[in-house]
Amino acid sequence: HVEILHSDENVINAFKHLEENIRSKSNDPKLYPELNWDATVRKSNELCEDEKKFSHDRKTHIREAFAKYVGVEVDEIHLDDIPTIAFTGSGGGIRSMICVTAYLRAIQESGLYDCGIYVSGVSGSAWTDAPKVFKALANNTAPQEAVELAFGSLVQKKDSGIHLSLIDIYGALLAAKLLIGPDSTIQSSDFKLSSQKKYVEGGKSMLPLYAAIYDNRPWKDYLEPEYAALIPDYEQVLEKHKMKNGYFQWYEFTPFEVGCEEFP
Question: At the top level of its lineage, which domain of life is listed (predicted)?
Fold first, then answer.
């Protein structure tokens, strides 16, 4: 019991010092080498060069598996013969998670899984609760690192001036439950998309596709008085904008780049 209480205390202390620990490390290029990178904006409907190279490497890597799946000799398969296959899963909570798991297991057994180029999904995550998350963190060999990995992004988002929502908290709890392994000291690169490049180099794994949706609500809500005062004829302008329909902006993420079709 003393050992359990000590583990719980370590988790509590990790949360207590979470903000100061995250902020003290936020400018460390050893932890965040991307701080020294130059970001660029690319306007194109073409895939980026990194993704084009990945596609070629992946088809080269799966050529033998594809030949086996379609029942021909590998010498008969040219890279142009290999279709771009993507496996995707829809939302639906725990039922979706179970169905997609069964689906992936089935295509693995059939050999089709080894012919995939992309893999993606949306929602369909398992439900969790805080007590179970706390127990998982307490059993970790490095609770401070585990807490920082799962919840540190909340501090970073807050410091960037972006409003935190309940979904952010839910995402952090879900990450703590599903993504944190027994030794979090070796997982720092698992939580950054840019670090996932190493898993797809040479086409050895499918390229993960991630998505985020922004609910754009043009003038659906009143501006605060201090901001409204900056706009000439605010009331008239507001009436016009209130008639506009809201819409969703779809953003796609890969380990190589972030894109949105509204900004070609």
Answer: Eukaryota
Q: Which amino acid is at 246?
A: G
For the stretch 105-149, pLDDT in tens is: 899 999 999 999 998 877 763 333 444 455 566 677 888 888 888
Spatial separation of the C-alpha atoms in residues 25 and 255, rounded to whole Å: 23
pLDDT score, position 223: 66
Query: 145: closest CA among 22, 230, 227, 1?
Result: 22
Residues 6+ apart with CB under 8 A from 75: none
Task: Extract the tokens encoding 214.
Answer: 């922004």
Q: Which strands make up the sheet holding 258-260, listed edge to edge?
A: 86-89, 118-121, 207-216, 247-253, 258-260
| Encoded tokens for 199 | 């898993």
E-strand spans in the chain?
86-89, 118-121, 207-216, 247-253, 258-260
pLDDT in tens, 28-50: 888 888 889 888 888 888 899 99
Question: Which residue shows structure tokens 């997982």?
Answer: 187
CB 142, CB 184: distance < 8 Å: yes
Q: Which residues contact 140 (CB under 8 A, 6 or more apart)?
A: 146, 180, 182, 183, 184
C-alpha triplet 151, 119, 46: angle, nearest 5° = 100
pLDDT in tens, 197-255: 888 899 999 998 888 877 776 655 556 677 777 778 877 777 777 777 777 888 888 99
Amino acid at 147: V
